Amino acid sequence: MTYPEIFVATCDLSGKVRGRGAPSEAYDSVLRSGLGWVPANLGITAFGDIAPKSAFGSTGDLRLKADKFSEITVPADGETPGMKLFLADLANPDGSDWACCPRTFLRKALSDFTEATGLRIIASFEHEFVLNGLPNSDSFSLRRHRDAEPFGSDLIRMLTDCGLAPENWLPEYGPGQFEITLEPSEALIAADRAVLLRELVRDLAIRRGLEASFAPLQDPDGTGTGVHVHISLVDDQGRPVLFDESRPGRLSEIGAKFSSGVLRHAHALTAWTAPSPVSFQRLAPHRWSAGGVFLAERNREALLRICPTSSMGGSAPERQFNLEYRAADATANPWLTLGVLIRAGLAGINGGSDYPLPEVFSEESTEADLADVPELPGSLEQALVYLEQDHVVASWFDQDLLATHLAVKRREAELTASLTDLEKVRKVAGVY
Ligand code: GLU
Ligand code: MG
User: Fold this and answer.
1) Could you list the residue range(s) of the whole structural domain that residue 215 is in?
2) Domain check: are 76 and 135 in the same one?
3) Where does the pLDDT of residue 151 fall: very low under 50, low under 70, confident under 90, or very high at 90 and above?
4) Residues within 5 A (CB) of ion ligand 2
5) To test the ligand 1 pocket, which listed residue (225, 305, 325, 329) has its Cβ within 8 A of the most ligand atoms?
6) Quick count: other Cβ atoms within 10 Å of Cβ 202?
7) In angstroms, what is the span from residue 131 Cα to ligand 2's centroid?
C-alpha cells in the first residue's frame, strides 16, 4: 500500500487548500462516494483558528466529492512519492450540492451564464510569487532566472506533466519575484489550475531549499504580488465575441456590458477577490496593481485592463483579445474569484439601462482624465461593508456562505488590527 497515494482537496474562503488522503486501493470507492468532510472547516481563518461567528458549529457532515475530470498525477520527486490529486465539490451526504461549496458556486455561475447568453467563458489566472532564499538580483534579469534553477526548469516540467499547460515563466520586478502564466482554458479548468498551481509551486520550492510566497506584499512599501484573471467570451462554436474593431477600445458591446457589471460591483467583489488584511495596501494607486475602478486599454493601473494583441507573425487579434481583472491576489479562492466576476458580468449583460456602458479610457489618458474614477476600498473592513451593502452581490450567495465569509474575514482583520503595517504584512506573509 502506497498511502497516501490519493488526495482529494477543496479550497476555502482564504484560498487554503485542504482535504483528505486515501490509499491507492481506495481509488474506485473515492470516486464513487467521496471522502468525509466537515462544514465547520469553512469557518477556519487563514491564521488557523475557527471564526467565532461562522455559521457552522460542531454538527453536520459533508462529502468531498472528487471530480474525476480534475485528476492530476503529481510525479515522484527524489524521495517524495508521487500522488493522484483530485479537486472536489463539497456535497451533502446524499451527493447533492452543498449550498456553501465554493467550487459549486463557480459551476453554477458558469451554467447560468451560458444559459442566459449562449456564451462560454475562457479564462487564465496569471500568478506572481516571491522566491525567498535566492541571492539578490536585478528585476527581470537573466541572473535571477538562472539563480532559480533547477527549480524553474523542474517547475515547468512538473506543471506540464500535471497538465497545467504552463505558458510563460519569468523573473518579475520586485525582489525575488517571479511570474508564471498558464494557457487559457475553459473557466472551471482555469480556476482548478489556479488552486493547484500555488500548492505545486510551494511544494516544489520546499524540496529545492526555497520558500515560495504568494502573499500580496512582503514589505508594506514594496512591490505587490498579484493574481490577474484573464477572461474572454466565446460563442457556441468557440468563436471569440469580445473583439469589435469598430468600438471604443475594440471591445464589443457584450464585452462592454460584461465590464459594466464588474465595475459597478467592484467594491463588493474585492471582498472575495482580495480578501486578506493586507490586500488593500497592494490595491493602491501607482503600484501597477489596480489603482482605481476603471476600464482602460493597456493600462496597468486599471481594475479592468483591455490587454494588448500582437500582429507579429500574422496573428489575428480576435482570439488574443481579453479582459484582465487585476484586483485579485492569492489570498482569495480562485473558484469564488472567477465565480463573482462571472456573476457581475452577467448582471451587466442582463441589467439593461441600469448598467450603462462604461467609458473606455485610452492609452493616452492622463492623471487628470482619471481624476474622477472611483477608488477601490481602502481596507478589508471597508470591502466587507460594501459587500453587505451591495444587495445584488449578496444575493448570489447562500446566507450561511455569506455570513461565514464575513465572519472569517472579520476575524482575520481583528487578529491583525493592533499590528503595525510591517507586522501585519509579515503575519500574512507567514501563512501564504
Ligand atoms: N505586481 C503587480 C501587482 O501587484 C503587477 C505588475 C504587472 O503588471 O505584472 O498586481
Ligand atoms: Mg506581473
Assistant:
1) 105-400
2) no
3) very high
4) 179
5) 225
6) 17
7) 14
Same domain for 117 and 89, yes or no, is no
**Residue 176 and residue 328: Cα distance in Å, rounded?**
20
91 CA to middle of ligand 2, Å?
36
Instruction: Tell whether pTM > 0.85.
Output: yes
82 and 157 belong to one structural domain: no
Upstream peptide bond of 175 is cis (omega within 30 degrees of 0): no
- How many of the other CB atoms lie within 10 Å of CB of 303? 27
- If asked whether residues 86 and 178 sit together in one domain, one would say no
% residues pLDDT > 90 (the chain): 97
Lookup result for grid cell 490519493: 6
pLDDT of 4 strictly over 90: no
Structural contact between residues 335 and 108, judged by C-beta atoms closer than 8 angstroms: no
pLDDT band at 342 (very low <50, low <70, confident <90, very high): very high
What mean pLDDT is predicted for residues 305-322? 94
Distance (Å, whole) CA 90 – CA 384: 25
**148 and 168: one domain?**
yes
pLDDT confidence of 133, banded at 50, 70, 90? very high
My answer on whether 234 and 110 are in the same domain is: yes
Query: Separation of 217 CA from ligand 2 center, angstroms?
Result: 14
- Name the CA radius of gyration of the chain, rounded: 21
Tell which atom from ligand 1 comes closest to the C-alpha of 228: 10
> Is 160 found in the same domain as 34?
no
Over the chain, what is the mean pLDDT? 96
- Among 218, 300, 304, 376, name the best residue to mutate to test ligand 1's pocket (greatest count of ligand atoms within 8 A of Cβ): 300
Give the ligand whose atoms come closest to the C-alpha of residue 227.
1
Q: Which atom of ligand 1 is nearest to the CA of 179?
A: 9
Looking at the structure, tell me whether residues 82 and 133 fall in a common domain.
Answer: no
pLDDT bracket for residue 2 (50, 70, 90): low
Quote the pLDDT of residue 3. 53
158, containing H or E segment: helix 151-161
What is the count of structural domains for the chain? Answer: 2
Q: What is the mean pLDDT of residues 82-89?
A: 96
